[in-house]
Design a protein that fits this description.
It is built from 3 helices and no strands. The protein is an all-alpha fold and 110 residues long. It starts with 8 loop residues before the first helix and ends in an 11-residue tail after the last helix.
Length: 110
């Protein structure tokens, strides 16, 4: 199994998540507005559900945004760790290369 992630993958993912966070709150509010013409045209559990959703729409939008913010925070940490690990691996490789005696690996006449 090969795992290959480009340097910009996590950055791109963070940008998409940040955009989705803003869009999601807007979509929740738009859903309430879109449903308003139906208000009063149905009764029972459907109406109770819609009324509860409408009443809590701002709270739902905030909680969704908070959740996506937590995901964004995790992605930021992952990007930082990935970058630090990449830099550390490069430094370790340079250190090993500088201390390696390549002459000892020659198989020909000395």
């Amino acid at each position: 199994m090969k795992f290959d992630m480009g340097a910009q993958t996590l950055s791109s993912l963070r940008q998409q998540t940040a955009g989705a966070s803003q869009d999601l709150g807007t979509l929740v509010r738009a859903l309430v507005v879109a449903g308003e013409p139906l208000e009063g045209r149905f009764n029972g559990a459907g109406r109770a559900g819609f009324d509860a959703f409408k009443l809590h729409a701002d709270q739902i939008a905030r909680e969704l945004n908070t959740s996506l913010s937590g995901i964004l925070h995790g992605q930021t940490g992952a990007a930082r760790s990935f970058s630090q690990g990449d830099q550390q691996m490069a430094e370790d490789a340079r250190t090993v290369q500088l201390t390696t005696d390549f002459d000892a690996a020659r198989f020909g006449n000395r």
